[in-house]
## 1
Amino acid sequence: MSTLKVDVHHVTRVEGHGNIVVDVENGELTQCDLQIVETPRFFEAMLRGRAYDEASHITSRICGICAVGHATASLRATEQALGVTPSLQTTLLRKLNFHGEILDSHVLHIYMLVAPDYLGLGSVIPLAKSAPDLVLRALRMKQLAGDLCATLCGRHTHPISMTVGGFTQFPKPADLRALRERLVASRADCDATIQLLQGLEFPAFERDTEYVALHRDDEYCFIDGSIASSDGGIRPLADYREVTNETIVAHSSAKHTRHQRESYMVGALARFNINYDRLHPRAQAAAEALGLRPKTINPYLNAAAQAVEVVHCTEDAILLIDQLLDQGIRHEEPAAPTRMSGEGVGAADVPRGTLFHHYRIEDGKIVGANCIIPTGQNLANIELDMRALVPEILDRTQQEITLALEMLVRAYDPCISCSTHMLDVKFV
Amino acid sequence: MKPKVAFFEFTSCEGCQLTVLDTLQRHPELLEVIEIVQFREAMTERSDDYQIAFIEGSCTRPSDEAKIREIRTQAQIVIAVGACAHLGGINAIRNRMPLDDVREYVYGDKKDWFETYPARPLSAVIKVDAVIPGCPIDRDEFAMAVTHLLQGRMPAIPDYPLCIECKLTENVCMFLRGQTCLGPITRAGCDAICPSCGQGCEGCRGLVPSPNLGSIKDALRERGMTEEQIDARLSLFLTYQTMQMDGVTPA
């Protein structure tokens, strides 16, 4: 096809509003944009003047899918700024709660947003009739993830009992034991998820890029840690701006980022590529079964990396519950601030990638705020993927090209309302 | 014939629609009695032939008004879903700040590239037939709303304060625990989930009819809150309403 115009207005089965716009004239790619047409949200401006303990309640509202992730990064930023050292129990409860969010989000993405494309369907709804076991499994896994968060923080969207320095309610040991039993039973659903992905034909597209994720030596990192790149180098969280280098582009109300190359990728595949060694052995076995090794450079396989993380988080959640039950749940007061002014950066590797919250606090009030969202960091990389992909598939029909582009964008699991401080496919 | 239902979202976190998906997962029988013809976040299939529109999100730019009016013209029943659509919600916090300053803080000298205006609830743009309050909405209340609609009546929401549900839940009053709470002026219906999790109510379900604002402010002052802290608490979800009570409606 020497002339091609694709214009997908409001890409479906993603969070928020984006357009894919591709224009090929006489075999030349003249335009290839992922337009972010979501309304600007202005959260950073709205945080100014608010009390430090309101920030996590406001910023969880940035996103319904990663509300726990935003609350976690927000609390860590505030705690860094005000010299708060949470207890071991708080750290364990936050990690366990975070696994609930990763499980919920990844299962939603794999089963409800991605799988229909590979099965030739428009949504999960017809799947309920053609493959009821598959849908029931997804629902069972999501319900477990949601109940995990509800037990720890009241509800997944939006968490209630997470607060600066700790929690305002605590799970009963009996509730944790019941969750543990369901997580153990969920291993069969994890295995079936891996089998499902083994059966999907992922497009063969590859493009090497820089991968960025949080990293710790002692665990597969989701909270805190340092910023690691597949191109080398580990930086402290405080230096996040040297990694993200935000710029504003006209076709996107979400800012773009770049680090050592023209673009970089964050998310499950980036974490997998960087932190593979720290995955639970069962998760490594799942990766092996999927033929997934670091470094994998096919962005469509982000969903496969998510499935590996589903296995990891299920296993690690069991271990965390054991540790919590062993040491006993204490109804402790949140750790108190040691100062009322300061500056702090909090980071969490949420389902879609690395999230930064950065606050400056004076006399207990937020005077400056910056939030850098995973999808914003992925936008430039998605566009470069699109630019590499389109010439490779120009011999296909417009419908096939459009679907390949939509599937590419969906592979990143973009979260657009989050990133507009992000998606539709548009071939003009 | 099953009623045709469509879901839309404007400025929001889409958390209420996720809660809707969650409700449909837990109550798959709902899918037997309604036909979902449009739900961008969950499905590619779409039709503009619908009778009931559920809308999440606030209107925060002039160009969204036309789309919202179009939905109103098509739908026989429009339901505002969640605090952003119902109240303006979190989005309206910035309504008390100079708009230009807010734009410049986030987008710098490119501030004019991205259209915006003060955040407002759906009811400021179109007639809304019913609301499902909350940030996010309550699963059971959404299921109940659908049940009511199938029975041919508008969804009914409580018109009494949260304190009643909180007492029924047997929580110790947040004020007696030395904390503060907007329960006395906030519409019930969430089973007092925040106080049950150790946090005072933040008013996300909106004000009860005829709220005694003077009295709640006195109670908050007695607990040592400054005027500024009281205003901040009342502005988390209630900025649009309290500005309206002060006679200020954004242009």
## 2
Amino acid sequence: MAQQVLVLVGTRKGAFLAESDAARRSWQLRGPFCETWPTNHVVADPASGTLYAGGGNEWFGPAVWKSSDFGASWTHSSQGLAYEAGQAPVKSVWSLAVAADGTLYAGVEPAGLFRSTDGGGSWTHLDGLQKHPTRPEWHPGGAGLILHSLVLDPADANKIWVGISAAGVFASEDGGLTWETRNRGTRADFMPEGQNYPEFGQCVHCLVMAPGGRGRLYQQNHCGMYRSDDGGRSWESIEEGLPSSFGFPAAVHPRDPDGLYLIPLNGDIKGRFMPEGNAAVWRTGDAGASWRAQRAGLPQGGAYFNVLRQAMATDTLEPAGVYFGSNAGGLYASADEGESWHCIAPHLPTITSVETLVIER
Amino acid sequence: MAGERPADMPAPVLVRLPPHLVVLFPGAARQVALPAASVAELVDGLDALWPGMRERICDETPAIRRHINIFVDGRRARLSTPLPPGADVFVITAISGG
């Protein structure tokens, strides 16, 4: 038995898998899967090794795809993945998360949350978000009214956090029945002066949970980077020392709750490129108090790409691997916690998501 | 007489499906003859043959999906459109994407 790492890649034209041994020096790419459907998120159930891919096709609607043989074969379903008759139809699946007991959650556009207890075969709408008093006032961000971040508490199956653009962060402590806003301390710079800290309406880009079980969350927002040490009830800016306050993805270190990776771009109205065309991942090892650019092996000069909100991840190996995929289709990997980088697939379609799975076989 | 349909069963129509729909359902065929008196009944029949095909063709409005057209004897149809016996039905996807 040897450890293998799978990098699960969602793209605008199907899902791909990049596979390596634990050294992570040589990679094999497989795909495209899911009939080249636009795929927003590919995740794995680490307990079973089952892969799930969520997306939506302009012709055929939303679906969650499933593979129980590491990508060799796939099936799809969207039974129950629909709002009530007469509502705006579900357009696509944006985010997936697997609970410790195998329960599968799907966040969709227009924003809502669904749950499957049969491995994605059928879905039930958790309609608590639709009933939230702020729901009539949610307005879509540039990518639509999308539920893109889905965070489950590994210690408490009833605790769920979601990020919705541009409605903000919401949390449930009863398994999705009821929700409360969790945006205190995060800015909405796009609102009129004096209204920049609303209860909701912030443009959250990515929400992640730190390891360690102490309720620490990080978020990359349209307007800043933040840390919360109380499950999102209050947020503190951690953007000082970064080249901008704008970016999309965030990825936590697998074991260090103070370790976080971000990819700041040059700004929201300047093209949203790598700053000065020089690609870098920025790392903190002290929960956001200080930052360091990690750019060895990444393109310096002429790198006018961005990295989308679900397109960065770490693996669980030692030292941790870090991965990101660009909108220009480049998939980059580091086997040493971001110190050095290699492009492991230069010409994929636009990459929408990157996740990892470490298996023994 | 063998093959004679019961009096309450509609006459069969011939439906042609696009390749990127058929590929989603193992065993599905590009052409199929089905008894159906309306487009909605036709979709019911397709879903009975290949479970899940309804969700691919229709949304929860319920309506035919925005980027799919169903043509009956050369005319664009809705779910409520009646099907005359022996109708020629095409399920067609819009040209889109990049």
## 3
Amino acid sequence: MSGMTLRQWLLTDTPTSRRHAKMASFYKGWLTLRGNTMAMFGLGILVALGLIALFAPLLAPYDWTTQNLGNRLQPLGTEGHLLGTDSLGRDILSRLIYGSRITLYIVALVALIAPVAGLLVGTVAGYVGGWVDLVLMRITDIFLAFPRLVLALAFVAALGAGIENAVLAISLTAWPPYARIARAETLTIRSSDYISAIRLQGAGPIRIITKHIWPLCISSLIVRVTLDMAGIILAAAGLGFLGLGAQPPSPEWGAMISEGRRFILDYWWVATMPGLAIFTVSLAFNLLGDGLRDVLDPKDSET
Amino acid sequence: MLDITDLNVWFGQGRDRVDAVKAASLAVEQGESFGLVGESGSGKSTILRAITGLAPDWSGRITVDGTDLGRRRDRAFYKSVQMVFQDPYASLHPRHSVDQVLSETLHLHGLGEIDRRVAKLLDDVGLGPRFRFRYPHQLSGGQRQRVAIARALAGEPRLLLLDEPTSALDVSVQAEILNLLTDLRAERGLTYLMVSHDLPVVGHMCERLAVMKDGEIVEVMEVAALRRMEARHPYAQSLLQASVAG
């Protein structure tokens, strides 16, 4: 690579090694994503969220549990309390900063459970077909038929309130759409020539599903997950709001809104600030999802 | 090498049943190149799919190398019989690089020295090492078809099923691919069963051919007879006339 800049090396049409080829295609995807201003805006917010969560103890001006009843319900811009204080005199900004950890925790857990379960069920159903398909998709239909929040409520009520159970409940209600997408994609992929070709090399169903079908399904699932993230954060906040998710004094944003609800007419900022935080993060996920769809859709990148 | 007796292939059940191939019989000798011609929908590709096991519903007898084929194909079958598909734009996985495609195929056939063999295969089909780490979207149609041929050759098969390997390509590229196939056959002593709707291509590539119409084989003839325009069946005659006029 003498006489070549890093950029030329990454954009070459003739990669010289496996790693080089992977990096080159990754870099091209990154260039497409970078061209999308709104997606970069969303990505920026999410990176900021990650950094805030990581450095929460350094950034937060106060401890999130410190109460000061003499200093309760202070308005925005009060000396030392930029976003005011809540009904127990706790600094709202500090609680928001620590709450970002919980939000990320929920998002990560749901993103690990729901799409993976959906991918597994959907691709197996789509590829194997027959009665396996029938059984798996009817189970999916049953889960789809339940109202999301009600099923989550029932689940949390059975297992007890708490953030882990809320995540499980949300995942339980979130996987069926992924299974549907994965199955639909598998049905179109399975009859294609490149699957026939690898079958003719003697590849078994497990290899075909994991190495040939998954890579093509995952991109549309990633897009769908980022677009659904907003809904998942809102569902977690909803459970928190109903008192079934994170429990006080946890600074989960939904639970904070729930606490602020009692004073919403006189002290609007107590509920509004965590609401704005939820709004911002949800919006960021939606923008990033739109951008990722442009990058990851294999149908577009072929031309 | 390949014997087909009374092959019937159908799709669907009951009232939806479509008979794609009816009572077809043909025999391909070791080292021969055999053509299968006919218009679209005459069932020629379906015969190939039945041989490879990609068309599930068939009856009759298919024998490769003296072994009767059952419902399922085993590893030995995939090692001795391979197929090149019609559309090189559809037969390569869009997310796998050339290197991945060939390495995986070699791995599936249980061959060692994968690195050296991949380079050798690319060399054999006229693609240099420059193409090794490219993705399908970085290749032209002809280059893709070369990769598909390399993949088919990876397990060192003896019978190659060619499903209109050039019909999706430009005319100039068609000739290159046909010459490549001719050379490979001479070098490796391969047996070809080639499907085409293009009589000149079959005339160039094959020694014998079968003419298909509506799922039936209406005539089997030598290419020499084809050149002398000595088709007996009226449909085969009309096909010849059309080809000469065109």
